[in-house]
Amino acid sequence: MAEKSLLVAIVAGILQGIFEWLPISSEGNITLFLRAMGSQPDAALRFSLFLHAGTAVAAAVYYRGELKGVLESLPDWRPSSAFQTRQAELSFLTVATLASGAVGLLAYKTLDAVVSELAGGGFVALIGVLLIGTGILLRTADRFELGNRETPTLVDALLVGAMQGLAILPGVSRSGTTAGTLLFRGYSGSDAFRLSFLLSIPAAAGAGVLVVLETGGLPVVAPTAAVAALASSAIIGYLTIDMLLRVVERVSFWAVCVGIGVLAILGGIFLLEFQV
Fold first, then answer.
1. Distance between CA atoms of 145 and 185, rounded to whole angstroms?
2. How far apart are CA 180 and CA 160, in angstroms?
């Protein structure tokens, strides 16, 4: 059993390292994988959230140059010029992270209560519905890519932060919703994904810390499995981020979300019928 738990954890970490950069729900798909491997809904949800800490490390290392530039603007930050050119990205990341924390904590508490009431099949079907919703958002955003805005505003930060907070729900893509919102606001595709991935660093790290605080430790029986999963998500995440950013420009991920969502709903209905 220990070997199986370790293998499942490593595979989950690898999937997180790949899925996090795609505009599909890494959390939703990893939760489905863990459910298929026999995990309970609440345990699968917490572990999929915990794995975000690994990709937070990967993104921080990959975007270290961008982060250095943002931090160098910190001494010049003033409330009166918070969203002017030099301080705009720092202000955007700060405000959006605070908004994400507030909305995400509320969404997580609500989800925790819902998961405890749902049967296994109901939980899988719920993820399917949210995946389809993500696909519809991505499809709609594709038609509104205006590409004429460059400097983040307070409204951008609040909207994107709130959407990222909602992405704590399994099936809702963090990168898909945040990049989609930025596309709606008129950013180019490259700027939308760059800001989205920078914003993922504090959010993903926070998700991992939240799970550790709630569980009082690492969210699996074997700490070795948790550490291995975290390491694999960080390593694979760093190795794949550049390649997968290029893939995003060529693949219609909205269709992937809808397809996986439909399968999840059908699978959830099957499980419910089986349970009855």
1. 8
2. 9
DSSP string of 96-161, one letter each residue: HHHHHHHHHHHHHHHHHHHHHHS-HHHHHHHHHHHHHHHHHHHHHHHTT----B-S--HHHHHHHH
Please, are residues 173 and 25 in contact by the beta-carbon 8 Å criterion? yes
Mean pLDDT within 221-231: 83
At residue 221, φ and ψ (nearest 5 deg) are: -65, -45
CA 25, chain centre distance (Å)? 7
Alpha carbon 139 to chain centroid distance?
Answer: 18
Residue 62: left if φ>0, alpha if ψ -120 to 50, beta else—which one?
A: alpha
Do 132 and 257 meet the contact criterion of CB atoms below 8 Å apart?
yes
Most confident of 5-19, 145-159, 181-195: 5-19
C-alpha to C-alpha distance for 166 and 179, rounded to whole angstroms: 14
CA 110 to chain centre: 18
The strand pairing partners of 187, in sequence order, are 149
75 — phi, psi (to 5°)?
-60, -25
Q: If pLDDT is split at 50, 70 and 90, which confidence band does 107 have?
A: confident
